Amino acid sequence: MPRCLLTVPMLFGLTALLASQGCERPADKPKPAKQAGTTPAATTKSVEDDLAAAQRPLGGQMPAEPPSGLPLGHPPIDATTPPTRGMAMPPGQPADEPVQLSYDVPETWKAEVPNTAMRQAQYLLPPAAGDTTDAHLALLYLGPRGGAGIEVTVQMWLSQFSTETGDPIGPEELERESFQVNDLDVTVIAISGYHTSSTMAGGTGERSATKHRLLGAIVSGPGGPWFFRAVGPTASIAAARDDFMLMLRSVRRSAGQ
User: Fold this and answer.
1) pTM over 0.90
2) pLDDT digits (tens, 9 = 90+) for 161-182
3) When you count CB atoms within 10 A of the terminal residue's CB, does the N or C end of the chain come out lower?
């Protein structure tokens, strides 16, 4: 088998051929020398840096410093605008204060202890001859602007009366008049029929066995309204009407109010 022998000239020729084809090993690049007195930059971040980055907008600009005591992003508060609490009254309209109503009590009316918290006063009226059921008058006051309006109250009183057969009393059966006294508006209502007392007003909820009558008055004014309501047998209430109207003509706000 023939052998291939490489002579020295052939080795030199092979080396030259490889060098001409770019096969020689590239030289290592020199490393840059360190400059004296320098250290690598720190790569760690603090918790404050992370929070700042999270709050930074996309544009890269941090928002202005928030007002003292407010969290970042809280809208500014105008120092000239006081905070509001509860329901505000309209501008220029002061809140009403409770007002004590004064009036002249007829000598024949006997004062009683009110049997409900809504009643500011309560009176036993003198009975007419033959009446065996008591007639009472009560003054209800629920504070400034308390209770229902005039028309709602009138309808409520009317709904407590019925005919002998149990039919509702119609509004045409109402007796009504109005007047003013001492800067107060007074609306007077009279209703006759069989009365079913309201448990909310301290009644028993039972229907009267005989015809009854209601004399009511709604007194309106600053601090009001006030509700006067007398109910009892027809004859007893009819006998008390003159005293009832005299009492209404004397209503006034108490001194200093």
Assistant:
1) no
2) 999 999 999 999 999 999 999 9
3) N
